[in-house]
Amino acid sequence: MNRSDRENYEEEKRQAYLEEEERKRSYYNERDYRREQELYEENRKNKRSKRGLSFLVVVLLIVAMVFAFKSCSNNNNTEQANVSDSPSQQQQQQQPNNEQYVQQKDDDIQSKIEDTKSSIENSNEDTQSTLQSLKDEVNSLKQNASNEKTEKVANDYQDTVNQLDEANTAKQNGDDSKVKEELNKVNSKLDDIKNEISGWFSKDEEN
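User: That's the sequence. What structure does it adopt?
Assistant: Structure tokens below.
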């Protein structure tokens, strides 16, 4: 093989190498482009899902507000209808009714608290709506509490909601020690509430 043929051979090899490199770059560029398109579609679907969830939460809040408003209206109408009753009779009737109402709501609220705790610990997507449902339940309890004992329990439940809020915020920030601390406070507060309600029954039996 003379020098000219060798040069031509070397040039052909170099050209073939360049073409192969260009083919590889083209392949990877196409693959990256497809990957970018897939990521774009995933992000768009995620945003659409979040918007749908936000809309659902708003609807639930509106429904809860409507029920709360109706509840307040019904309470006002009941109070107006009973204006003719003597203050002593109203006090005697209202106190056991409020305590019975708190006792009836206690199981529901405790169940929602446990659901919210579990949702926070597992970082569930519906944690915020679960927490909001619990807040609505506690707000309803506070609106219907009208004596010192029931108001104390309602306020204790409000403290529990605040602690769950703190735990949820800490979970979102990745502060697991803070999450544990707040959930321990929740458990302690629940024990206090149980003891308070149990005390009502003990006093009734003594009387």
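The chain has two domains: 1-77, 91-207.
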